[in-house]
Write a structure and sequence with these properties.
646 residues; alpha+beta; 33% helix
Length: 646
């Protein structure tokens, strides 16, 4: 074998290994977040193309909201009966599916007014709420305040005592009575008859006063205060009228349907305040629907936000409702809708979805799960098939496109202007009830938010009902860092107290486990490790595949190639020696082809084999040994390996 052939072989081997290494490094770096979201859109588009009729009806709505498909199938599913237009499922008329279809079709520019009217007509008065009238006034010591309460043909005379309790100077008629324990005589109870619930109450006092309604679920002692409060000076009048409705199906209040119907209609600028008492008091009875997400988007009450964040899996960032009837992907999407426009909780959920939970095809779970998640977390993402143009400024984009700084991709200028017009014009996207200024119906926000001309009210930790935990303390409750007075290293602790960190146990997460209410496919429960909230420790099952042994072999081969280059002179001598030994016993210094046989018995043993002398003309000149290399050879090898590792 010639020396030139050896050099060419070594060079080709090195080139092949380097190219292979570069490909491997590129694959290890993985896709960017933009690529991953685009892959999810591509996967969803592949699932629904030419097959919208085969996927569930609710999945079609989210397919239309994300990849702009299934519109014709949704329209074809609509039931038209006279002036009524609605959608149904296997259980009959569906409030939830009708609300979702209205949202999807209206976003696609389809007229849904008839369906909206049908939805609004599906209402009734719930019979599960107790109502109370509060009359309050600043009573001077030793004094009382006299008031009148008129409804129908009845006038009740009421006295506000120094201790804020109430008493009748005359009876309260058919509809009014003093409250019993534990709110003894502090409010006037409204009789739970339709006549009393529909009545209008007019109040007047001989001193400055205020009035409002309070309500609670029957059988509960937790009072809720109506958002509407009216105040008047002495001799003035206030009017209070109970507004309490639910969306019904078969003459029964449908809680999940009411959540979806109220949220969609509120987004379309209908007044849904009458539905809030029912949705609020019944939330504890339906935790499987994650009502705190809907209620926070409808009211902006921090209580619901805190409850929603407390349901998030703190290790992975996804949500799973208590007693859920759905999968965690669906529940996570519901939570994402409630936290639109926020980062706390949302960023962790996105990291989990993109880094841990995404399938190889780009989807998550079912077609419904994928469409719902994309709508909840990446509604404004502009899907571009397999061609994504990344950017850092508008100059990187083609004509008609601008750079979305958050996503780092070029998006259609018209789409961005349409979806982000409220924020881009300096206004604020928030819940309509949380708007302290004027709602701007002409400007659009991402569902389910509305455009307001006043900024959101930023509350302190105390306003949120919490306490600040200083650095070095941990919160035995729910952490909410949206408070305005939380400094670096501190946290706002709600529903708990600030405590010293507990000694660390053998945590599930320290052993690459996942804490969850149940273990997914591919994981097995290991009770020897600790998880908070009584969750199970799920350890990933060992797989026979997926090993990286071949990477180590590749690296070892690269090392051998480098060593071969450095010590090529010595290797050439070794090769010549090996080749010459294979020529037979006539080779200089060669061994006989067979081992020497033992001498016959009685003969002294031979000390060595017979010596063979080559003729003088075949004698080779002695080869000059290469100069021995010093320790610098090792240094050169180490230096080259170090440079390759950079």
């Amino acid at each position: 074998m010639s020396l030139g052939f050896m050099k060419r072989g070594l060079a080709l081997s090195i080139l092949f290994l380097l190219v292979f290494s570069l490909v491997f490094v590129a694959s290890v770096e993985g896709d960017t977040d933009v690529d991953k979201v685009n892959n999810a859109y591509s996967c969803l588009a592949d699932r629904v193309v030419d097959s919208c009729s085969a996927i569930p009806a609710d999945a079609r709505a989210f397919a239309l909201l994300t990849v702009d498909d299934c519109k014709e199938e949704i329209i074809a599913d609509k039931i038209v009966s006279g002036t009524d237009e609605y959608w149904s499922n296997s259980d009959g008329q569906s409030l939830k599916l009708t609300a979702q279809s209205i949202l999807a079709l209206s976003s696609a520019g389809v007229d849904t007014e008839a369906s909206e009217k049908w939805l609004l007509n599906q209402n009734k008065s719930p019979n599960v709420i107790d109502w109370f009238l509060e009359i309050d006034s600043g009573v001077a010591p030793g004094e009382t305040v006299s008031c009148t309460v008129e409804y129908g043909t009845t006038t009740a005379l009421v006295t506000i005592n120094e201790d804020k309790t109430l008493s009748f100077q005359s009876g309260g008629g058919l509809c009014l009575s003093l409250t019993a324990s534990p709110f003894t005589n502090y409010f006037l109870r409204i009789s739970n008859t339709q006549q009393c619930l529909d009545a209008e109450y007019t109040i007047s006092c001989d001193s400055s006063f205020l009035t409002t309604f309070l309500f609670k679920k029957q059988g509960s002692n937790t009072l809720q205060v109506s958002k509407e409060t009216h105040a008047e000076s002495a001799g003035g009048f206030t009017t209070e009228k109970i507004k309490s409705l639910c969306f019904q199906k078969n003459q029964q209040c449908d809680y999940e349907g009411s959540l979806w119907a109220a949220t969609v209609l509120n987004y379309m600028h209908y007044d849904v305040s009458a539905y809030m008492p029912y949705l609020i008091v019944m939330a504890e009875d339906y935790p499987e629907y994650m009502p705190d997400s809907f209620l926070y988007s409808l009211t902006s009450y921090q209580e619901f936000r805190t409850n929603l964040l407390s349901l998030q899996n703190q290790q992975n960032g996804y949500w799973r409702a208590q007693g859920t009837i759905f999968e965690k992907f669906y529940d996570t999407a519901v939570a994402g809708l409630g936290l639109r426009g926020e980062t706390q909780g949302v960023d962790d959920a996105k990291r989990y979805l993109l880094d841990q939970a995404q399938n190889e095809d780009g989807c998550w779970g079912s077609t419904l799960d994928t469409g719902f998640l994309l709508f909840a977390f990446w509604e404004n993402f502009v899907y571009s098939g397999t061609d994504v143009q990344t950017c850092t400024s508008n100059t990187d984009c083609a004509t008609g496109f601008i750079c979305d700084a958050e996503l780092g991709v070029c998006v259609d200028e018209g789409i961005v202007d349409d979806n982000l017009s409220c924020d881009s014009l300096g206004y604020y996207c928030m819940s309509s009830i949380g708007c302290t200024g004027n709602l701007l119906d002409d400007y659009k926000c991402a569902y389910p938010l509305s455009c307001c001309d006043a900024p959101p009210v930023v509350e302190t930790c105390e306003d949120l009902g919490g306490q600040i935990c200083v650095a070095g303390k941990t919160c035995a409750g729910t952490v909410d860092n949206s408070a305005s007075d939380v400094d670096f290293g501190e946290s706002c602790c709600i529903g708990g107290s600030c405590v010293d960190p507990t000694p660390k146990e053998d945590s599930c997460t320290d052993f690459n486990g996942i804490c969850d209410t149940s273990c997914d496919t591919g994981y097995t429960e290991d009770s020897s490790y600790y998880c908070p909230f009584n969750d199970k420790c799920c350890i990933k099952k060992q797989s026979s595949g997926g090993s990286y042994w071949w990477i180590w072999i590749l690296l070892i081969l690269i090392v051998f190639v480098v060593l071969g280059i450095v010590f090529r002179d010595r290797l050439k001598i070794l090769w010549v020696r090996i080749s010459s030994r294979g020529a037979g016993s006539s080779s200089p210094g060669g061994r006989p082809p067979f081992p020497p046989r033992s001498p016959p018995a009685g003969m002294p043993p031979m000390r060595g084999g017979p010596r063979t002398m080559a003729p003088p003309q075949q004698m080779r000149p002695p080869m000059r040994k290469p100069a021995p290399r010093g320790s610098g050879d090792v240094d050169d090898v180490l230096r080259k390996l170090k440079e390759m590792g950079k």
